[in-house]
Amino acid sequence: MHSYINIRSPLLRSTILPLSLRRYITPRYTPTAVASLSISIPDSELSARGFSINYSTTNLDPSALNDVFASVGFPRRDTARLNLALSHSSGSLVWLSRTTDPTKPVAFARATGDGVFNAVVWDVVVDPSYQGIGLGKAVMERVIADLREKGIVNIALYAEPRVISFYRPLGFIPDPDGIKGMVYSRRNLQKKKR
Question: Exactly one of 29, 55, 158, 167 is catalytic; which is it?
Answer without folding.
Answer: 167
